[in-house]
Structures are given as structure tokens and as C-alpha cells.
Give the backbone structure.
Amino acid sequence: MTSQLLLIQALNGLQLGILLFLIAAGLTLVFGVMDFINLAHGVQYMIGAYLAAWIAAATGSFWLALLLALPLALALGLLLEFLVFRHLYDRDHLQQVLATFGVILVLNQGVKLVLGAAPLQVPTPALLSGGIVLMEGLLYPTYRIAIIVGGLATAGLLWWLVERTKVGMLVRAGATNAPMVAALGVDIRRLFMIVFGFGAMLAGFAGVLAAPILSVEPGMGDNLLILAFVVIVIGGIGSVRGAFIAAILVGLVETLGRSLVPDLLRLFLSASEARQVGAAVASMLVYIAMAAILAIRPAGLFPVRAG
């Protein structure tokens, strides 16, 4: 593998890690604060992408789609919380898993009925079209750089909200000991609603960012949801800092592994065998890394401290 290809794959891995963080940040807060397993969180990512596609097609402006999709994703997330999820908070995890899986099926089929099963495309905004020269002979898409920069800025803003504001203090306290927070007079139901709505908006934001570079289609969030759960387990449930570091790690391992492993196996196997075995091994690398990290730190890299 050339240095240019290695740099491209590293940037692609960083971009994937940013998208994973935007999904996993809300998921880890919902799980950490509310002890609620929401398998339908990936649907919020899909909804954000569809909102971007729909608004961009209607207005011809990606920027207007970005501006309007975020509050709409928040509103739809709060609507789901009010209609479905708040009735599951006191149920056991198995019932939460089954109910939220049902929400995935309903919303995926609902999107197919309303918008069809054919993939939709969102044009890259003209302002961010083209590429940036990273080195001689290497042009990297400007929009992908913008995703990385925007995601890092969002991560910094989220860190400030969680670590430096009163609401963030309550969220951190709720992730540590929600019953104690409720006993101190905090409206825990309202806190739950804020956390859930904010998590839904972050996932929707990830969907909007991904829409110009990926096909917008039903079920597009399902595979990323699996990786998002890997991220929150590695990072430590309830930890935003852990989610960020784990998301970048998972993104790099997932992307670089699929490029490097087949090349390494060519040293020992034929080209066709290296492709087949390499694809299988690369798909397992993230889970191997998760098992190795949990063997050393069972609670994740940055677990939320109780007490």
C-alpha cells in the first residue's frame, strides 16, 4: 500500500469515526442516564438523511436542508419518545430490545411505503465540491474534510455542554446515579426527554452529513447502529469522552483493516485467497479489538464513576 492510499484510508476512517461518534454520543447518554436500550437509535440517523434528501430536493439547497432537518429530527425524536419510548423506561431490557426492534421494522417499512425503496441521492453542496490537495498527486474531497471538521467542532461543543453547563452536570449526575438525582428534586422525566431529544438530533445530524456521500435508503442506519454499540461498550457506557475516542478507534480499525489485511495476507496467500480471507478477517477486526480492550478494562476505556 502506498503512502497516499494509506493517508486516504486514514482520513476515511476518521470520517467514519466522526459519524459513529455523532450516533454513539446520544446512544451512550440515553443508555447511561436512562438505562434504556434503544435499538431504534439508528432509525434517527436514517430519518436525518431522508429529511435532508427531501428538503434538498424541494428547495434545491443543501444548507437549508441542514438547517431544517435538525429541528425536525429533534421533533420526531421527541414524538417517538412521547408515543413509545417513555412507556418502556420501567420495563426490563429484553422488553426494551423487542419493542425498539419493532420500531425499526415499522419505520423502515413506513419509509418504503411513503418514499419508496429506491435509494435517493443528495448532491454535494457547490461550496464544498471539488477537492483539497494534501500532497503531490493526492486530491481529497472537500466535503469529506468538512464532515471531519464539522464533527470535531460538534464534539467540542458537546464536551462543553456536558462538562461546563448545569444541564450537563445533571446529565453526568444522572449517568452516575439517576435515582439520587430524582430524590434531590430534579424532574428526571424532563431530563430523560432532553437527553433523548438531543441524542436523536445528533443522530439526525450524522444522517444529514452522510446523505451526500452515501445512498439514502431504508435500513441505512442498521449497520452503523451495531458499530455504535461497539463504540459505547469500548468507550464506557455513559462517557462522551470515551465514545469519541472509541469512535475514532473503531473508524480507523474498520477502514484501515479492510485495506491493509488483504495486502498483508498476499505475503502468504495467492491474490484471490488473500481477498477472500482478508475480507473475512477484516470484518472481525473491530470485534477482536473490542474483546481485547474489554479483557484489560471490562468497564471500557473511560467508565463513568459511580459514587
